[in-house]
Design goal:
- The protein is mostly helical.
- Helix content is 31%, strand content 0%.
- The longest helix is centred in the middle third of the chain and has 5 residues.
- It is flat, with a radius of gyration of 6 Å.
- The relative contact order is 0.44.
Length: 16
């Protein structure tokens, strides 16, 4: 959830 990404809201810090 580091980057305010749409995916970050549904999945854990994936784009970290």
């Amino acid at each position: 959830n580091f980057p305010l990404d749409l995916a970050s809201v549904e999945a854990p810090v994936v784009n970290g």
